[in-house]
Amino acid sequence: MILAATDDRIRFVTQPDHAALAGRFAEAWGGEAVDAPTPKPAVRLAVHAHDDGWWPRDRRPRLKPDGTPYDFYEIPAAQWMRLQRRGVDAVARADPYAGLLVSLHAAGLRRQRYGLSPSWPETPRAFRGFVEREQRRQRSLATALREDDTDDRLSVDDSALITHLHDAGEPPSEVFPGTARDPHLWRNYRLLSALDALSLRICATPTRMGSSVGSWDGEERCDDEGSNREGRSDGAQTDPGAVEVAPIEIPHVPTRPGEPDTTLSATPCFGDSWRIDPYPFDRSPVTVHVPTRTVDSTSFQDERTLFDRYYAAEIEEITVTMRPA
Known about the structure:
Blueprint: E1 2-5, E2 10-13, H1 15-28, H2 40-49, H3 55-58, H4 77-94, H5 96-108, H6 125-147, H7 156-168, H8 184-203, E3 248-253, E4 262-268, E5 273-277, E6 286-295, H9 303-312, E7 316-324
Parallel strand pairs: 5-7
Antiparallel strand pairs: 1-2, 2-6, 3-4, 4-5, 6-7
Helix pairs in contact: 1-2, 1-8, 2-5, 4-5, 4-6, 5-6, 5-8, 6-7
Protein name: DUF3891 domain-containing protein
Region (Disordered): 209-240
Organism: Halorubrum vacuolatum
């Protein structure tokens, strides 16, 4: 469960719904600034379903000992590993390439994202067995893909990349963005990581919770501060409970083969609208509806109280809109 909290309320987004948002971004990925992924169907599946294993837990939000709900990054290690493993299992059954990509993503979260996040801790002891099991799964899936004469999605370079990631925790020195030696699998891994991060940051940002009142007329426009000053039709004032939100920056975003990665900047506008630079989608705007529930409290007497109040809250679909900067 992903939480967006203010002083007096919490908005909940399930992990699978966050992944579905990332998946919708993947479906629209590819425009003037970036190429669409290859193989497109498997990458779309991987991004869309990479957190489907969380459904059993997210159906019932849980409380920490202090009476506040668990956010997704706070759950105990054993539960996290079980949920991740269940999710990879399901995707791998649907498609081996997508399963390989999701397994790399899951293991990478506990191995400094295979060199993309060197400031993260090295694999904690509690997660070493999980990483080893997923890497065995990756070798098995890669072997099956390479031995299937009808499936050409995994190249020799991709297979060599997997071996080096397992041995060194990062790609070979000659494999980096902006060169011809940037295997599709590594580009797709970076894309999944980037879209996961973008969706997580959007879902964890409480922009809609007391951000404005009244209606708007016309396209929203952001000034250099990231605020919105145009398009107001009724003269209504900004809600004093509005939440100030800084721009989101997502590094290591693949662009095109032979070209360097970029950093994607997402600047919040009114409500749940965002300005994106560089703009990576094949149309504008990209609009996605995300189901949420908002509870008017931040701490709870017990889990039954949280359960009752969570399911008493109406499902509200926030409309996430992406436009060029």
